[in-house]
Amino acid sequence: MFDFGNSNNGQKEAISSANGPVLITAGPGTGKTYTLVQRAIYLIEECGVQPENLFIATFTEKAAKELITRITNELARRNITANVNEMYVGTFHSLCLRILKENLEYTRLKKNYRLLDAFDQKYTVFQNIYQFRNIPNVDAVLPDSGAWKQSEAICGYANNLSEELVLPDDLERDADPAISAMGTILRAYQKLLNDNNLMDFSSIQVETYRLLTEHSEILEELQRKITHLMVDEYQDTNYIQEQLVFLLAGKKKNICVVGDDDQGLYRFRGATIRNILEFPQKFNAGECKVVSLVVNYRSNTDIVDFYNTWMATTEGAKFKFQWGEFRYNKKIVAHTQVKLSSPAVVKLSGVDDEDEWHENILKFIHRLKDSGKLTDYNQIAFLFSSVKHPKVKALADFLEKNQINVYSPRSDMFFERYEVRLTLGCLMLMFPRYVQGLENGDYPTLRPEHITYYRQCIMPANEHLLKPENKSLLRWIRQTGRIHVGLQGTTDYAYSGLLYQLFEYQPFQGMLDTDLNVGVVDIRPSRNLAKLSQIIGKFEYLHRVDTLNGKYININTEKFFNLYIRLLYDGGITEYEDDSEYAPSGCVSFLTIHQSKGMEFPIVVVDSLSNVPRTRNNDLMLQIEARYFKRPAFEPYDQTKYFDFWRLYYTAFSRAQDLLILTCDEDKRTPSNYFRELYSELQSVDSDHFQLAEFNFKPVKDVNIKRTFAFTSNITVYDTCALQYKFYKELEFMPVRANAMLFGTLVHETIEDIHRAAIRHEESEITHENIEKWFDANYSSLSKTEHSYLAAQQLEAALKQVIRYADRQHGNWSTIQQAEVDVSLVKPDYIIDGKIDLIKGEGDTVEIVDFKSERKPDLEKSREKLEQYRRQLNIYAYLVEERTGKKVSRMNLYYTGEENGVPIVTFPYTKTAIDGTMAAFDDTVQRILKKDFHHCANDEKICKNCDFKYFCRSK
Fold first, then answer.
1. In terms of C-beta density within 10 A (0-12 exposed, 13-18 middle, 19 or more buried), how is residue 739 classed?
2. What phi, psi does 90 have (nearest 5°)?
3. Average pLDDT taken over every residue of the chain
4. pTM of structure
5. Sign of the C-alpha dihedral, residues 853, 859, 862, 868?
6. Phi and psi dihedrals of 507, rounded to 5?
7. 264 three-state secondary structure
8. Helix-strand-coil percent breakdown of the chain, rounded to 5?
9. What digits encode the pLDDT tens for the residues 634-681?
10. How many helices and strands (H and E) does the chain possess?
11. In whole angstroms, how far apart are CA 157 and each of 152, 162, 164, 341, 602?
12. Left (φ > 0), alpha (ψ -120 to 50) or beta: where does 826 sit?
């Protein structure tokens, strides 16, 4: 009998509805994630579904990590073994990427494709904007503005049209010149991606859809493998995601969708509420089971009543609308009736005086703290429609000046942080000609706000350098500047190299020396320096800058500051967010309402009460929607602004657990008419009716997310140098780009092609001619991605290694079972991860093979390196045996560079050796989890090649 624990009746029904279509409408705080997890366990334990036969999609990486952790914990508690890598659990995009990677040869993509984030996507179009500007009638589509704004518009159109499966051909045939031009824009954009082996976020799903619809054998295999689908946050899905879900489900129709139509917030990203509202109609009458979860375990009774009233208030002094068929009729019920005489929904205001409003907020926070009811500032969250608004930034500045730390990673404060301005200022001073041009007004692309900002970088840098204790840094910057002014040849560094050299000096060294166990505000400078290293590294990659030389130093420096940094400054940079700690201790949170979705806080303060519903329609896109989208419009255009507005603030109000506060600086327009009636009925925090003594505020819940560790990318790095691990893995500094290991990767990828052919039972395709074709295709995509090349002699040697490996098999590929195998195992407090090059064998006994594209080493001289490889293979053997139950007989290193001798080094499988390796692995992981990063490498060669050698030099 399945243990339902404390599940209520609705949750039990949802958990045990195993087969056929199921819709679970889950209001805020009704245990949606708990229900999803328990339903997955029910399918595995009661229905005999294998974990790898489940497909569970959610909306954010954080939600996916939490689902994986909770499901694997529950499986482990019930002694059920599962390979996390075989379970289809993740965001839609990550799951689609997995399907594409497993079937890459059937797509337009080649190996080593580059995935574009939002900025990369716009920047790629920006660099090729001339291709779009030459399109006839493009002026009817694109804004009459600069290249960057036009690039933004092109990307927005491409994303929207792609995810609605609109084809360029159809648009180009339209008689309307603007629509025809839109088709040509879409075609040019898709060609840009194809020619450069690129993929943006929307095309991840489009490519997956094409793969499944054009290759029935792949779709049928996935339908056979995936027996049950669950989709979280279904109200936030778009058209193509719905299509993918129904494709994968096939005739079985085992689709369970979970969501809350009242929290559909992502229309601006192409999401449509119709997917959840129309879901039951996709099936025969009575076929879809609908379960409604309405019992709220999160919020005080007053808070639940308040947001129920909000959703029911559809008529006021200046507005009137009806939900009609565009909302499931429901009323959320608090699980526990809290009996307080004090109201739990109140207001906190100033009256047309921003300073007074700030003071009132500060006074109330102090009152909370002084009462002893507030144990940590992280129990308070402020929610806004945007955290970038000047009023929001002013409030954050005021609180921080009054010793209340604010956590607001999306407020675009990155470039305002002292450490970022100081670093950029120091970098500018190393290029005197650039600074001279800035002073002379030589850069027409810089607007006054850019010039002001750059001066605000140079001024603190000069002030810092003129202090007596910083004379060594001043001397180095002046010396470097003189070198750059007179540069004739080539340096052995670029901009990243200069950044890492700065770390030898204060205050940078002190920032990087910060212990990672301190609070988020104290770590922020080092995290921002890491972010800056990523920004500079990305610039160098995109513009192929590896060194500085006399011919291009001024051009590249101007391009770096006047183009790349300028565009990032205009767009804003998000600071670091930790998925495992959404409300850092010691800080009040400033979040957007969208950002807060899925979170809960004991005390929630909702601002942005001057907002009004706004129509955001594009006439051209409305015409295209009417003619070329696969289904007609759903919600009426004149009503959507109300629907979206009500859903947004419903989400905000329902984040509160114990106390909900509406706040604003009252004036004629604030609060707006849409809030005024409800707001006016609220008691003030200063009212005698509001009794703080009656409240007991819950602590912020810990986020339960397990981290993943691999031997090569985690354990080996930490054991080599814990300080390197801190910088590269924890803080995520980007290493200075060294020449890519092209040779080894090329050999490895082509051998993988051979193994894939063998696994597909296409052994006859493994010929010298085909191997050469695979090799050339891999080299083409690899060199394009890495911006690096091999000499003809090296290419010939690499190809010989691959062909020699194939020839040595004498056509016997029958023992190959799997290639490039992702394996993982769930431990009590972390997940072990690994990728095995090759598993071969027969029956229940297998061998593990790891390939090395070099000559077999002297076994005596290379004892230390071989021991490291042995430990790695021990981990892989442990994962294979624990996961599959198959016995590993041997562990092999295969050296493809070995010409005449035996290319294999074999390690025997011994349980004691594997147990010892696992114990050491666990010990290292525990030290990483404790953030023990104090030991350094004692190998001169390692230190010499490390970017942080300058940082360590001064310690």
1. exposed
2. 170, -170
3. 92
4. 0.91
5. positive
6. -90, 0
7. coil
8. 55, 15, 35
9. 988 889 999 999 999 999 999 999 999 999 999 999 999 999 999 999
10. 38, 23
11. 9, 8, 11, 53, 40
12. beta
